[in-house]
Specification:
With about 400 residues, the chain is α/β, with parallel strands linked by helices. The chain has 13 helices and 15 strands. Helix content is about 40%, strand content about 15%. Helix 1 packs antiparallel against helix 8 and helix 8 packs across helix 12. The mean pLDDT is about 95. The chain binds pyridoxal-5'-phosphate.
Length: about 400
């Protein structure tokens, strides 16, 4: 059976070059980088080399890079640290369409008496900057928001957001987990204070992340213990994964030269092909002009996204859905809900996310397989009008 992996916003395959770079650190280079002896010194050099490569990808200084275990830890570190530094007199501003790794810690702070504001988005998934300006009238203010949305691929106007936050004297943390490697994410061009990255979204393994902290930004560590990462993140460094991430960042820099254009062309071919094959009751969710080049989120009216996924999976195609069946009822994605996507469309949403390994053949296979699935599911749907069953 042909296998097509189009769920790269969930995770990416580890690049063979990354595995190769990591291998010696599972075999002969197994020292602890904090050790004073030869074994330690030998690997510490490689950790610093990887730090420089990560810094280079985002235009940072290596001393501003902290290795963590994942994007979730990076986000939690930034948010919990801000709560500790600024206390309950601070306002925490985020958006309704964030990943749970931002919404979770913000909502927990809200439950413990913090003033938390969640900005709304418009029907294209873009944040309400008027609401942001209003929220920033309160001081001190900590803003935590995403660069690009994991479900729709919608890119937030981070330059503009950073300008607004900085001119109001606020502190800005950006979750760039989905943006890095797909767009230029440059902290030397955009004045963010903190920024999160995750290895497994850019062809490094799961279990390694980064928190960038601009020099001079007030910071509190989340993990307490040893003095690793200059006292900013305790815990013995995950050397093989750090080295792998360094290699993945190096490859991401190369990919950024031509990769995004190629990906966008494949994504557009997929989208157009699916719309041509299923012409009625289909919607593309999110701002088409400002989207990650690898992502499309499409809704097929009157059918369930999860049902489409099962059928796709039977044909060897991996994608993901914006709706999840929890205890018998279909729960629509909080992102599509915030955008006001009508329920009959939101329930049938599917995200296809491509990578540098996706081929034109993969795209054509999905285009060829989808119409029969949509037809079969619409025939079972009590709501689907006859003309939509005729595709
Ligand atoms: N932020 C965004 C936007 C994400 O898409 C994800 C993962 O899907 C995360 C944070 C969490 O990253 P990790 O899986 O490394 O914890």
């Amino acid at each position: 059976m042909k296998i097509v992996y189009m769920d790269n916003n969930a995770t990416t395959r580890v690049a063979p070059e990354v595995t190769e770079a990591m291998e010696p650190f599972f075999r002969e280079l197994w020292g602890n980088p904090s050790s004073m002896h030869y074994f330690g010194g030998q690997v510490a050099r490689h950790v610093e080399d990887a730090r420089a490569k990560v810094a280079e990808l985002i235009g940072a200084d290596p001393s501003e890079i902290i290795f963590t275990s994942c994007g979730t830890e990076s986000n939690n570190t930034a948010i919990a640290g801000a709560a500790e530094i600024y206390g309950r007199q601070a306002r925490i501003v985020t958006s309704r369409v964030e990943h749970q790794a931002v919404l979770g810690p913000c909502r927990k702070l809200g439950q413990t008496g913090f003033d938390v504001v969640e900005l709304g988005v418009d029907s294209a998934g873009q944040p309400d900057l008027g609401e942001l300006r209003k929220a920033l009238q309160h001081a001190p203010c900590f803003v935590t928001t995403m660069w690009a949305n994991n479900e729709t691929g919608v890119i937030f106007p981070i330059e503009e957001i950073a300008g607004i936050v900085k001119s109001a004297g606020g502190v800005l943390h950006v979750d760039a987990v989905q943006a890095a490697g797909k767009l230029p994410v440059r902290v030397d061009e955009v004045p963010v204070d903190m920024l999160s990255l995750s290895g497994h979204k850019i062809h490094a393994p799961k279990g390694i992340g980064v928190l960038y902290v601009r020099r001079g930004t007030k910071f509190r560590p989340f993990m307490l213990g040893g003095h690793q990462e200059h006292g900013r993140r305790a815990g013995t460094e995950n050397v093989p994964y750090i080295v792998g991430l360094g290699r993945a960042c190096e490859m991401a820099r190369e990919h950024l030269r031509e990769g995004p254009g190629k990906l966008a062309a494949l994504r557009d071919r997929l989208e157009k092909g699916l719309i041509a094959a299923c012409p009625s009751g289909v919607l593309v969710n999110g701002d088409k002009g400002r989207r990650l080049p690898n992502t499309t989120n499409m809704s097929f009216r009157y059918i369930e996204g999860e049902a489409i996924l099962y059928h796709l999976s039977d044909l060897g195609i991996a994608a993901s859905s914006g709706s999840a069946c929890t205890s018998g009822s279909l729960e629509v994605s909080h992102v599509l809900r915030a955008m006001g996507v009508p329920a009959e469309f939101a329930q049938g949403s599917i995200r296809f996310s491509l990578s540098r390994y996706t081929t034109g053949e993969d795209v054509d296979y999905v285009i060829a397989m989808m119409p029969a699935i949509v037809r079969r599911l619409r025939a079972l749907s009590p709501f689907s009008p006859p003309e939509e069953q005729q595709i």
